[in-house]
């Protein structure tokens, strides 16, 4: 387990921060001329191959890592939707491009992702509460097809969520 508070998030690109980074490392090619996450999700191709998250795991793309162990990597989202917005990903994808592709053999990693979210939330001081989000597919606004959890905190969440 480690916390890397000295690392800086990658600088946003001129064409839209996270969306441009995602597009530049996806099968879509160059930077995306999109305005939001919904557009990124609509443009994303559901792939089972390597994603930008695989490059982050291999440290080929810089990220602000807040937690890492043998099974998961957690890093600050470069387009935060809350004062604390952390992405938690399994280091081994094992076919889990999205939650709807989960099989019984994935039960342990799914549970561990939630446990890791609890650890990160405590580490980040989110004692008053937090939200966990898993986007699945185009209508679920998934833009990177590598199962991941969004941990959101330090603001009052609303209901219904979206």
TrEMBL record:
Coiled coil: none annotated. SUPFAM superfamilies: HIT-like (SSF54197). CDD domains: PKCI_related (cd01276). A motif (Histidine triad motif) lies at residues 146-150. One of its GO terms (molecular function) is adenylylsulfatase activity. It holds the Pfam family HIT. Residues 52-162 form the HIT domain. The active site is at 148 (tele-amp-histidine intermediate). This is HIT domain-containing protein. It comes from Arundo donax.
């Amino acid at each position: 387990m480690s916390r890397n508070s000295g690392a800086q998030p990658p600088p946003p690109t001129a064409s839209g921060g996270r969306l441009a980074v995602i597009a530049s490392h996806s099968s879509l090619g160059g930077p995306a001329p999109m305005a939001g996450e919904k557009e990124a999700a609509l443009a994303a191709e559901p792939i089972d191959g390597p994603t930008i998250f695989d490059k982050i795991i291999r440290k080929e793309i810089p990220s602000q890592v807040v937690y890492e162990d043998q099974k998961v990597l957690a890093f600050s989202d470069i387009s935060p939707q809350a004062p604390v917005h952390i992405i938690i990903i399994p280091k081994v994808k094992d076919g889990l491009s999205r939650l709807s592709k989960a099989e019984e053999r994935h039960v342990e990693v799914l549970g561990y992702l939630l446990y890791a979210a609890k650890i990160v939330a405590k580490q980040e001081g989110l004692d008053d509460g937090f939200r966990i989000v898993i986007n699945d597919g185009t209508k679920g606004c998934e833009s990177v097809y590598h199962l991941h959890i969004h941990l959101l905190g330090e603001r009052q969440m609303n209901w219904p969520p979206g």
